[in-house]
Amino acid sequence: MKRQKLMLDSAMGGLVESIARLAEKGELRPTAIPELSLFRRTEPSEPITGMYEPSVCLIAQGAKRVQLGNDTYIYDASHYLFAGLHLPVVAQVIEASHEKPYLGLKLTFDYRDISQLMADSLLPPPRTQKTDRGMATGELTVTLVNAFQRLVDLLDDEQDIPILAPVIQREIYYRLLVGDQGARLRQLAAMGTQSQQVARVITWLKANFSKPLRVDELAEMANMGTSTFHHHFRSMTALSPLQYQKHLRLQEARRLMLSESIDAASAAFQVGYESPTQFSREYSRLFGAPPMRDITNLRQMVTLENE
Q1: Which of 6, 7, 144, 260 has CB 3.0 to 4.6 Å from 175, enough for a Cys bridge?
Q2: Coiled-coil region(s) at which residues (predicted)?
């Protein structure tokens, strides 16, 4: 056990050096590998409401707390975070400093690639699954960290990315499929499972959140009874379908006001609200301030970070 810890620390040391160098000039760095983003932060953050997409998140240095409903996930240089669905969360960097900045990465994935890997390979049995949630933490292994290191290394030789990045990403998927969150990942990727059917409905909701929601129609889409669908949806997302739709609407309204400079009432109608008063009340409950005050605060934060 001690030897494994030393090997993991050594592997993580290389990743710390790579991310620190590549993400030196900004908090977030999209990369030449479309699915891969790098993160750097020199101080803890305030809690930030946002949407996690299907991805695996790894921290080379520092720590982060993620709140999904009433569940809290903390991950660091020993644990990765697996998000199997588009999930509304409150995230906060809790360990970061100028001397030891928070350094992390995120790799998004497409379930079609994982399903193809499952179809092409005779995978070993997964480890026991402990939860139905679409989010979980898992223990980092040396083999998984080394695979991420090789992926990050490609950013120094971008001409190799088109050929080698898909190969390394396939290895990362394999490591996840046989790891301690493998059962959850397999259920989400396998056609016909209840988890995959709920995931398909969530994809539809993301594209149609401004439309009126009828849970019985969503259940029919998932080929489930209404109560069964409601149970599985809440088990996976920690939210009811109506709560989930509300988060999608409010997140999009916030984006519209921040990025496109439209007023709160217009944003409310655009995302499906009929009452600006209800929109303002629910927005304040989620983000902690009325719409325009929240947007003003966000713009001031961006200005301070860029100075």
Answers
A1: 144
A2: none
